[in-house]
């Protein structure tokens, strides 16, 4: 809305500036002096009295107005006449308003064409927008969360883990908290998912209160350093164990044994950086829980390694 109002203000400013800066034809003056006695004669020559009188006749209803022709409408919209109009001439102001509206709506169309859409976002990473229904998955019919896909080989907390969307307003204490943190809380959402997979029922806001309270996250940068995960989960009686091998096979093996692994995509590989949870995998695929609106659930090994640079931490109860 602010952008649209700005476009309208720009359109009006440009139009008014053009009017004020445009040259006006000099007014004709009568070189002959007009005495007080000859005011009526002078008024007929300059047209001043006739203009005032015609206005009074219109207001009083005595003057009959003819139909407007298409030629007069064209004159109203004539840009050349508009740019050179006299401020007191009301007819051309209709043209000014119409031109301003045209500029305004043209700006709206241009803005809509330039703004990113979910389709454009998905196109930036076409290789990760893989539907979970097309993956070689096995759904557990006994689960009480049918919306959460379960893949073959999962066990323990990895199997119990449920995705938490970081853009869900219900995950925050207030609308202000949502507006401040929602787009930078991927680390918080990942920790919440893993901690809850061990039987807890926290919201993102509960973990965020601690993470922000110990100054490990900011709205602009998100998680400030990897050690912030260790210090945050310690407040919930959990511990963090870092996987230093940088081996995807090891990450998948740990996750398949029932211990979800938080992994990070650094900013140089993923715009802005991102954290998500590996729930398991096999020789071809990596299964993840992603709190972002992309909700990425399946990667091939090749695509995962394109974004992952070795950041991997296992969170378990003490």
From TrEMBL:
Upper lineage:
Bacteria, Bacillati, Chloroflexota, Ktedonobacteria, Ktedonobacterales
The source's superkingdom equals Bacteria
* Source organism: Ktedonosporobacter rubrisoli
Q: Where is the composition biased (Low complexity)?
A: 37-47
TM region(s), chain numbering: 93-111
The molecule here is called Peptidase C39-like domain-containing protein
Q: Where is the Peptidase C39-like domain?
A: 175-291
Q: Which UniProt keywords apply?
A: Membrane, Transmembrane, Transmembrane helix
Where would one find the signal peptide in this protein? none
Pfam families with a match to the protein in the record: Peptidase_C39_2
Q: Which InterPro entries match?
A: Peptidase_C39-like
């Amino acid at each position: 809305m602010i952008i649209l109002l700005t476009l309208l203000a720009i359109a009006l400013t440009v139009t008014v500036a053009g009017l004020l800066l445009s040259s006006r034809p000099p007014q004709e003056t009568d070189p002959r002096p007009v005495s007080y006695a000859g005011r009526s004669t002078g008024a007929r020559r300059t047209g001043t009295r006739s203009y005032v009188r015609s206005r009074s006749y219109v207001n009083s209803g005595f003057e009959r107005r003819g139909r407007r022709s298409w030629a007069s409408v064209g004159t109203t919209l004539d840009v050349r006449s508009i740019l050179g109009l006299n401020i007191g001439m009301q007819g051309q102001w209709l043209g000014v308003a119409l031109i301003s509206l045209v500029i305004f709506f043209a700006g709206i169309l241009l803005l809509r064409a330039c703004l990113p859409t979910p389709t454009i976002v998905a196109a930036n990473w076409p290789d990760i927008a893989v539907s979970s229904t097309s993956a070689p998955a096995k759904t557990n019919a006994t689960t009480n969360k049918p919306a959460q896909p379960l893949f073959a080989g999962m066990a323990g907390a990895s199997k119990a883990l449920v995705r938490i969307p970081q853009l869900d307003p219900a995950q925050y204490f207030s609308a202000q908290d949502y507006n401040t943190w929602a787009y930078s809380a991927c680390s918080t959402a990942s920790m919440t998912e893993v901690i809850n997979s061990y039987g807890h029922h926290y919201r993102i806001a509960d973990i965020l209160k601690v993470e922000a309270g110990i100054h490990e996250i900011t709205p602009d940068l998100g998680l400030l350093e990897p050690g912030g995960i260790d210090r945050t989960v310690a407040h919930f009686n959990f511990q963090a164990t870092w996987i230093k091998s940088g081996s995807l096979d090891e990450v998948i093996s740990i996750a398949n044994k029932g211990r979800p692994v938080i992994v990070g995509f650094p900013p140089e590989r993923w715009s802005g950086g991102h954290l998500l949870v590996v729930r398991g995998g096999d020789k071809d695929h990596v299964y993840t829980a992603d709190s972002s609106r992309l909700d990425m659930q399946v990667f091939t090994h090749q695509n995962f390694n394109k974004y992952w640079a070795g950041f991997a931490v296992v969170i378990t109860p003490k």
